[in-house]
Amino acid sequence: MANVFSEEERRELLAFVRGVIESELMNTEPPVPPAIAQLRESRACFVTLHDITGNLRGCIGNIEAFEPLADNLARNAYNAAFSDPRFAPLAPEELGETSIELSILTKPEPIADPTQFVVGEDGIILRQGTRGAVFLPQVAPEQGWDQETTLAYLSHKAGLPADGWKQPGTSFQTFRAEVFGE
Fold first, then answer.
1. What pairing do the DSSP bridges indicate for beta strands 109-111 and 131-135?
2. 35-47 pLDDT per residue, tens
3. What does the mean pLDDT of the chain come to?
4. Whether 126 contacts 147, CB under 8 Å
5. Distance separating alpha carbons of residues 99 and 182, to the nearest angstrom
6. Domains and their CATH numbers in the chain
7. What gap in Å lies between CA 53 and CA 8, rounded to an integer?
8. First-to-last C-alpha distance (Å) of the chain
9. What is the tens place of the pLDDT at every residue in 44-97?
């Protein structure tokens, strides 16, 4: 995916997201979003937090766009820091040791066959009945997974057996993301 945001805009977006989290921790007014035209577009994103050792500290986002990107970034920043059910809320003393990564997503598109999924380029969504799961494009390469391993872990994440991705009635969508961080 071609970069939509310049290096300067990326720095501004990361500072904005950090400011959203900091304003909550310090009980101050949240920052005003930077004057970047794309922030008014309806886009989906994920905000990922890592601790000083590089371990996941929070990750919240959405796949489908339903609000302007500025609002979505602020919502997901708050939720990644304070509402990820896997972690305790971020404490003030942790903020300086927490790095932020943003993933700005394209609209998901259906694929006919899961083998059309390209590891390291595509994010993937699996749906089977009421079950579903998603991996961002960077997850498989970070874990060292090939295509089949990624699909097996995606199946597990959806609460299915490892070969659940091969079962009839399973559908897939892929998307791309512009990923950048501190």
1. unpaired
2. 999 999 999 999 9
3. 95
4. no
5. 6
6. 7-105 (3.30.700.20), 109-176 (3.30.1490.150)
7. 26
8. 20
9. 999 999 999 999 999 999 999 999 999 999 999 999 999 999 999 999 999 999
